[in-house]
Amino acid sequence: MSLSQSPSRAQPATLRVLVADDHPTNRAVIESILQVVGAEVVSVEDGAQAVERFRAETFDLVLMDVQMPVMDGLTAIRTIRALEAERGGRRVPVHVVSTNALPEHMGQSLAAGADSHVTKPLDVSALLNVVLQAL
Fold first, then answer.
1. In CATH, what number is assigned to the domain containing residue 93?
2. Which residue of 71, 78, 81, 130 could cross-link 48, Cys pair, CB 3.0 to 4.6 Å?
């Protein structure tokens, strides 16, 4: 058995991140940042798609825009938290990533069940801190 095959040198698990944002450029920027830490990213365009993927798959972190078509981010977060309560499993960190930066917007995010509210334009270090907390 070589050192690369040794159980003591096992590779860390890949962080799976669900990104929900209706703007393709925003998704691409977030995906690029997450590639730095080797995250596996699943991107969707609206809250309904985010809920559907969350229901069907396992994620370590969710990054959610607020203003999206079909289902807004706050509704999606409330739905995700309800799914977690039904399952009785662990609470996945959900962080809002939005241009809405007023204190009341941040309060609405937290009231919906988000763990934090990161504002756009993205500060790379702030987003990476959110990712590191999920690790």
1. 3.40.50.2300
2. 71
